[in-house]
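no rush on this but wanted to send it before i forget. theres a chain ive been looking at and ive put its sequence and its fold in token form underneath. i want to understand how the tokens follow from the sequence so walk me through it. thanks a lot i owe you, the record is right below:
>
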Amino acid sequence: MARLQIEQLRAAMKQENIDAYIILTDDFHGSEYVGEYFKCREYVSGFDGSAGTLVVTKDKAGLWTDGRYFLQADRQLRGSGIELMRIGEEETPKIEEFLHDNLGNKQTIGYDGRTITAEYADFLKESLKDTGVLWKEDVDLVCRIWSGRPAMQAQPVWILPDKYTGEERRHKLMRLREKLQEKNADVMLISALDEVCWLYNIRGNDVEYNPVVLSYTIITKTEAILYINQKAVSKEISMLLYRDGIAIKPYFQIYEDIKQLHGLNIMCDRGAVNFALLAEASKDNNIIDTISPIKLFKAVKNPVEMENEVYAHILDGAAVTRLIYWLKNRFGKERITELEVCRKLEELRCGIKSYLGQSFAAIAGSGAHGAIIHYEPTVDSDIELVDNSFLLLDTGGHYMEGTTDVTRTIACGALSQEQKRNYTAVLCGNLNIGDVYFKYGCTGANFDYMARSALWRRGLDYRHGTGHGVGYILNVHEGPNAIRLKNSDNSVGTVFEEGMITSNEPGVYLENQYGIRLENLIMCIKDKKTEYGQFMKMQTLTLVPFDRNAIDVSMLDSRQIALLNEYHRQVFEKIGHMLNDDERAWLREETKAL
């Protein structure tokens, strides 16, 4: 099917005299996950992973994606005529290198300027300035060939009460205006959906799994304007926002209003604002390029959010633990498939009053499917759970009390000694990160190796970061905090602050065999302060037992055994009372001290 789309796109390119066309994953807001309307790259290529860029020329087509999706993309691109470009591998040219080598003087590169950040557009132009290429940055070719393209979402907006946010929107606006003052800015332009929703304490359902609302906002020293589909906002919510000094205008009106700004200092993040919007803002104004202060504001959870998140993980831990009990008691006795596991877990979560929905599409990979890092079972791919192997189950939920993300790899049948050793090497990394103790000022790059060291000793590794920040009833992936060896720009990342929630998820993936990943969410908290400074540690939020049948105890040192025993003690203590008698008896055995 993708071959037809590629040929249709090339025909549209010919009509516009475009020699290379770039289709990114982004919507108009630089979002990681996008609504159905914005899935242009998926429509043209057939690859439905959450990260990837398609470049099409007159005679070539390439899709760039990272290590999480190599196996998935290889499978989905077969027969499409699109070459898989494996980001990070030596033989793979970068996108700008590919364009540099395949285009020359007077040839034209095109894209929809609303779907590319200003920062990345500038980077491409700088990288290709010596080629003499031309640019056409305002053309949506996919719209021309996509018959039956879904409409843009406009789901009802709802308010997240202060008892969950811990901070009124008026106070958030005050903090943001203080940053405007510091930067000597007149206006701040915000387009990241989770930032807008955090600022105004609103939520929605315009992007599947991410409770956000398609919107922009402009903040001045005296005004706040929310650009949104007005049909999505009830009169009651409009009044609540109006009382806090927030005016509402139509979603696309921002492109006209930005043209009316003249001679002002406009503060924005070029890495988040799309090219088309910033091009208008730049015409008669001074742009102050800075990382949005909201990014750090929302990453540092306040005491109310921290307390709520602890409770959310008790609720979620009980649901996931009940799922594992259900699975262990049925495997080998009846047929169970990957999708049945997903449906059962969703049923258990839906029994919790404050449950809002999944925080991402469930990943349930049995046997070789587990080696596909972000594999999502479908009706076509669904298989029965493989005996003598693993089920990798990575899921998460949104609750009124917060967002969860948990991965457990479950032994199905008898395991080989090699399988147990690999599982235990991953477990060592998880325990090490959960117990990390550090002086304030450290970033994830300072201790990423602790998650990988046991795997490195076995000549193994994984092609993803060890941890990502997690939003509060927002995006399950959020910055700026992370645990990885280094960022894509070679920086060491953001200093950990008290209240930041980060995933802890080492893994190993053996192609055509199985995958293992063990993920807990951890929250940074302060510990002692001495004459040498403030010391920090991590509090593990996730409460789900590890699979003792997969552990080679001989690989754990005494500290790791003590850590595992203490973790399992807390799991039983905090969620045991939420289980029925049979489930609780099973959990008591699962969490016995080694």
